[in-house]
Amino acid sequence: METIFITGAGPRGVTGKLIKEYFSNKFNLLTPSSTELDLTNDVNVTEYFNNNKIDYVIHCATFRPTSVHNGHFVDEELESNLRMYFSLAKQASRMKKMIYFGSGAEFDKSAPIIRASEVDFGKRIPQNKYGLGKYIMNIDAVNSSNIYNLRLFGTIDKYERFTKNIISNLCVKAIMEMPIQLRQDCRFSFIDINDVLPIIEYALLNPLAHHDYNLAIDETFLLSDIAKIIIKMSGRTDSVFFEKKGGPCRSLIRG
Fold this sequence. Notes:
alpha/beta; Rossmann fold; 6-stranded parallel β-sheet; two-stranded parallel ribbon; 31% helix; 18% strand
Protein backbone atom coordinates (compact mmCIF):
# COMPACT_ATOMS: atom_id res chain seq x y z
CA MET A 1 0.00 0.00 0.00
CA GLU A 2 1.30 3.45 -0.94
CA THR A 3 1.91 6.19 1.60
CA ILE A 4 0.52 9.73 1.70
CA PHE A 5 2.08 12.42 3.88
CA ILE A 6 -0.70 14.85 4.82
CA THR A 7 0.24 18.15 6.45
CA GLY A 8 -2.24 20.12 8.51
CA ALA A 9 -4.08 16.97 9.62
CA GLY A 10 -3.25 17.24 13.30
CA PRO A 11 -5.67 17.93 16.18
CA ARG A 12 -6.20 21.53 15.05
CA GLY A 13 -6.40 20.67 11.36
CA VAL A 14 -9.39 21.58 9.22
CA THR A 15 -9.22 20.42 5.61
CA GLY A 16 -6.32 18.10 6.39
CA LYS A 17 -8.37 16.31 9.03
CA LEU A 18 -11.18 15.64 6.55
CA ILE A 19 -8.70 14.38 3.94
CA LYS A 20 -7.18 12.08 6.55
CA GLU A 21 -10.59 10.54 7.22
CA TYR A 22 -11.27 10.06 3.51
CA PHE A 23 -7.99 8.27 2.75
CA SER A 24 -7.70 6.33 6.02
CA ASN A 25 -8.62 2.96 4.48
CA LYS A 26 -7.04 3.54 1.08
CA PHE A 27 -3.41 4.46 1.85
CA ASN A 28 -0.87 4.36 4.61
CA LEU A 29 -1.01 7.83 6.15
CA LEU A 30 1.62 10.00 7.80
CA THR A 31 -0.03 12.91 9.62
CA PRO A 32 2.41 14.49 12.08
CA SER A 33 1.20 17.51 14.02
CA SER A 34 3.11 20.79 14.02
CA THR A 35 4.62 19.88 17.38
CA GLU A 36 5.91 16.61 15.92
CA LEU A 37 7.26 18.14 12.71
CA ASP A 38 7.92 21.84 12.13
CA LEU A 39 7.46 22.23 8.39
CA THR A 40 9.20 25.61 8.42
CA ASN A 41 12.43 23.85 9.39
CA ASP A 42 13.99 22.46 6.22
CA VAL A 43 16.45 20.25 8.11
CA ASN A 44 13.65 18.56 10.03
CA VAL A 45 11.59 17.99 6.88
CA THR A 46 14.56 16.45 5.07
CA GLU A 47 15.18 14.14 8.01
CA TYR A 48 11.49 13.14 8.00
CA PHE A 49 11.76 12.10 4.35
CA ASN A 50 14.96 10.22 5.12
CA ASN A 51 13.11 8.22 7.76
CA ASN A 52 9.91 7.55 5.79
CA LYS A 53 9.09 6.25 2.31
CA ILE A 54 6.61 8.77 0.95
CA ASP A 55 4.74 8.33 -2.34
CA TYR A 56 2.49 11.40 -2.23
CA VAL A 57 2.24 14.66 -0.31
CA ILE A 58 -1.00 16.56 0.31
CA HIS A 59 -0.01 19.90 1.79
CA CYS A 60 -2.83 21.48 3.79
CA ALA A 61 -0.93 23.25 6.56
CA THR A 62 -1.18 27.04 6.57
CA PHE A 63 0.40 29.50 8.95
CA ARG A 64 -1.91 32.27 10.16
CA PRO A 65 -0.64 34.57 12.95
CA THR A 66 -3.97 34.47 14.80
CA SER A 67 -4.19 30.67 14.78
CA VAL A 68 -0.74 29.58 15.90
CA HIS A 69 -0.64 27.71 19.19
CA ASN A 70 2.86 26.29 19.01
CA GLY A 71 6.25 27.79 18.28
CA HIS A 72 7.70 27.53 14.78
CA PHE A 73 11.16 27.95 13.39
CA VAL A 74 9.96 31.32 12.05
CA ASP A 75 6.83 33.31 12.90
CA GLU A 76 6.21 35.74 10.06
CA GLU A 77 3.21 34.78 7.87
CA LEU A 78 4.72 35.10 4.40
CA GLU A 79 8.03 33.51 5.34
CA SER A 80 6.41 30.67 7.27
CA ASN A 81 4.06 29.66 4.46
CA LEU A 82 6.84 29.82 1.87
CA ARG A 83 9.25 27.87 4.04
CA MET A 84 6.67 25.13 4.58
CA TYR A 85 5.94 24.87 0.86
CA PHE A 86 9.55 24.90 -0.31
CA SER A 87 10.71 22.51 2.42
CA LEU A 88 8.29 20.02 0.87
CA ALA A 89 8.87 21.01 -2.76
CA LYS A 90 12.58 20.42 -2.23
CA GLN A 91 11.71 16.73 -1.77
CA ALA A 92 9.73 16.51 -5.04
CA SER A 93 12.17 14.07 -6.64
CA ARG A 94 11.53 11.64 -3.79
CA MET A 95 7.77 11.42 -4.36
CA LYS A 96 5.33 10.76 -7.19
CA LYS A 97 3.19 13.86 -6.70
CA MET A 98 2.61 16.74 -4.35
CA ILE A 99 -0.77 18.45 -4.17
CA TYR A 100 -1.36 21.65 -2.24
CA PHE A 101 -4.26 24.07 -1.95
CA GLY A 102 -4.02 27.50 -3.47
CA SER A 103 -6.44 30.35 -2.90
CA GLY A 104 -8.50 32.89 -4.76
CA ALA A 105 -6.24 35.38 -3.00
CA GLU A 106 -3.69 34.58 -5.74
CA PHE A 107 -5.78 36.83 -8.01
CA ASP A 108 -5.45 39.74 -5.52
CA LYS A 109 -8.45 40.28 -3.27
CA SER A 110 -7.91 44.04 -3.19
CA ALA A 111 -9.86 44.10 -6.47
CA PRO A 112 -13.07 42.24 -7.42
CA ILE A 113 -12.47 38.64 -8.51
CA ILE A 114 -15.16 38.00 -11.13
CA ARG A 115 -15.25 34.88 -13.32
CA ALA A 116 -11.54 34.39 -12.86
CA SER A 117 -10.00 31.48 -14.73
CA GLU A 118 -6.59 29.88 -14.50
CA VAL A 119 -5.28 31.99 -17.40
CA ASP A 120 -5.96 35.15 -15.38
CA PHE A 121 -3.22 34.23 -12.94
CA GLY A 122 -0.44 36.83 -12.93
CA LYS A 123 -2.52 39.77 -14.14
CA ARG A 124 -2.33 41.25 -10.66
CA ILE A 125 0.15 40.66 -7.85
CA PRO A 126 -1.61 40.13 -4.48
CA GLN A 127 -1.20 42.96 -2.00
CA ASN A 128 -1.50 40.91 1.19
CA LYS A 129 1.06 38.44 2.52
CA TYR A 130 -1.18 35.39 2.37
CA GLY A 131 -2.10 35.95 -1.27
CA LEU A 132 1.49 36.78 -2.23
CA GLY A 133 2.69 33.55 -0.65
CA LYS A 134 0.18 31.49 -2.62
CA TYR A 135 1.11 33.45 -5.75
CA ILE A 136 4.79 32.53 -5.38
CA MET A 137 3.92 28.88 -4.71
CA ASN A 138 1.88 28.67 -7.90
CA ILE A 139 4.74 30.08 -9.97
CA ASP A 140 6.90 27.26 -8.66
CA ALA A 141 4.21 24.59 -9.10
CA VAL A 142 3.43 25.37 -12.75
CA ASN A 143 7.13 25.10 -13.55
CA SER A 144 7.56 21.82 -11.68
CA SER A 145 7.21 18.28 -12.96
CA ASN A 146 5.00 16.88 -10.20
CA ILE A 147 3.53 19.63 -7.98
CA TYR A 148 -0.12 20.60 -8.45
CA ASN A 149 -2.21 23.49 -7.12
CA LEU A 150 -5.90 22.85 -6.44
CA ARG A 151 -7.10 26.41 -5.98
CA LEU A 152 -9.93 26.89 -3.50
CA PHE A 153 -12.14 29.94 -3.12
CA GLY A 154 -15.14 29.84 -0.78
CA THR A 155 -15.42 26.48 1.01
CA ILE A 156 -17.79 24.51 3.22
CA ASP A 157 -16.09 22.18 5.67
CA LYS A 158 -17.53 20.60 8.80
CA TYR A 159 -14.30 21.32 10.67
CA GLU A 160 -14.07 24.96 9.56
CA ARG A 161 -13.76 27.40 12.45
CA PHE A 162 -16.57 29.94 12.68
CA THR A 163 -14.01 32.72 13.08
CA LYS A 164 -12.65 32.03 9.59
CA ASN A 165 -15.62 30.90 7.49
CA ILE A 166 -18.53 33.22 6.79
CA ILE A 167 -21.17 30.48 6.49
CA SER A 168 -20.03 28.82 9.71
CA ASN A 169 -20.05 32.25 11.35
CA LEU A 170 -23.66 32.85 10.30
CA CYS A 171 -24.71 29.45 11.66
CA VAL A 172 -23.10 30.12 15.04
CA LYS A 173 -24.70 33.56 15.28
CA ALA A 174 -28.10 32.04 14.50
CA ILE A 175 -27.70 29.29 17.11
CA MET A 176 -26.46 31.73 19.76
CA GLU A 177 -29.28 34.16 18.93
CA MET A 178 -26.78 36.86 18.11
CA PRO A 179 -27.65 39.68 15.68
CA ILE A 180 -27.02 38.70 12.06
CA GLN A 181 -25.07 41.82 11.20
CA LEU A 182 -22.36 41.65 8.56
CA ARG A 183 -20.09 44.19 6.94
CA GLN A 184 -21.28 43.95 3.36
CA ASP A 185 -23.41 41.88 1.02
CA CYS A 186 -21.72 40.23 -1.93
CA ARG A 187 -22.20 37.46 -4.45
CA PHE A 188 -19.82 34.54 -4.30
CA SER A 189 -19.24 30.93 -5.24
CA PHE A 190 -17.90 28.12 -3.07
CA ILE A 191 -17.38 24.37 -2.98
CA ASP A 192 -18.06 21.68 -0.41
CA ILE A 193 -14.79 20.06 0.68
CA ASN A 194 -16.54 16.69 0.49
CA ASP A 195 -16.76 17.25 -3.27
CA VAL A 196 -13.05 18.08 -3.38
CA LEU A 197 -11.99 14.76 -1.82
CA PRO A 198 -12.59 12.55 -4.90
CA ILE A 199 -10.91 15.23 -7.03
CA ILE A 200 -7.80 14.93 -4.86
CA GLU A 201 -7.84 11.15 -5.25
CA TYR A 202 -8.18 11.44 -9.03
CA ALA A 203 -5.37 13.98 -9.17
CA LEU A 204 -3.07 11.68 -7.23
CA LEU A 205 -3.69 8.60 -9.36
CA ASN A 206 -4.06 10.01 -12.87
CA PRO A 207 -1.97 12.12 -15.28
CA LEU A 208 -2.88 15.82 -15.23
CA ALA A 209 -2.55 18.18 -18.17
CA HIS A 210 -1.95 21.29 -16.08
CA HIS A 211 -0.45 22.21 -12.73
CA ASP A 212 -3.12 24.56 -11.38
CA TYR A 213 -6.89 24.10 -11.30
CA ASN A 214 -9.65 26.35 -9.95
CA LEU A 215 -12.17 24.43 -7.85
CA ALA A 216 -15.58 26.09 -7.52
CA ILE A 217 -19.16 25.62 -8.68
CA ASP A 218 -20.68 27.77 -11.42
CA GLU A 219 -23.67 28.88 -9.37
CA THR A 220 -23.29 32.02 -7.27
CA PHE A 221 -25.11 33.14 -4.14
CA LEU A 222 -25.80 36.41 -2.37
CA LEU A 223 -24.52 36.33 1.18
CA SER A 224 -27.81 37.86 2.31
CA ASP A 225 -29.80 34.99 0.75
CA ILE A 226 -27.66 32.41 2.54
CA ALA A 227 -28.12 34.31 5.81
CA LYS A 228 -31.91 34.35 5.33
CA ILE A 229 -31.97 30.58 4.79
CA ILE A 230 -29.94 30.03 7.96
CA ILE A 231 -32.22 32.37 9.95
CA LYS A 232 -35.30 30.51 8.70
CA MET A 233 -33.82 27.10 9.55
CA SER A 234 -33.01 28.30 13.07
CA GLY A 235 -36.62 29.36 13.65
CA ARG A 236 -35.81 33.03 14.00
CA THR A 237 -37.81 35.84 12.42
CA ASP A 238 -35.33 38.73 12.49
CA SER A 239 -33.60 40.28 9.49
CA VAL A 240 -30.07 40.50 8.16
CA PHE A 241 -28.29 43.82 8.68
CA PHE A 242 -25.28 45.05 6.73
CA GLU A 243 -22.99 47.89 7.68
CA LYS A 244 -22.81 49.08 4.08
CA LYS A 245 -24.33 48.26 0.71
CA GLY A 246 -23.00 45.30 -1.23
CA GLY A 247 -20.24 45.57 -3.78
CA PRO A 248 -18.81 43.33 -6.49
CA CYS A 249 -18.26 39.66 -5.90
CA ARG A 250 -14.84 38.87 -4.45
CA SER A 251 -14.97 35.12 -4.93
CA LEU A 252 -14.60 33.13 -8.09
CA ILE A 253 -17.42 32.58 -10.56
CA ARG A 254 -16.33 30.13 -13.22
CA GLY A 255 -16.77 31.46 -16.73
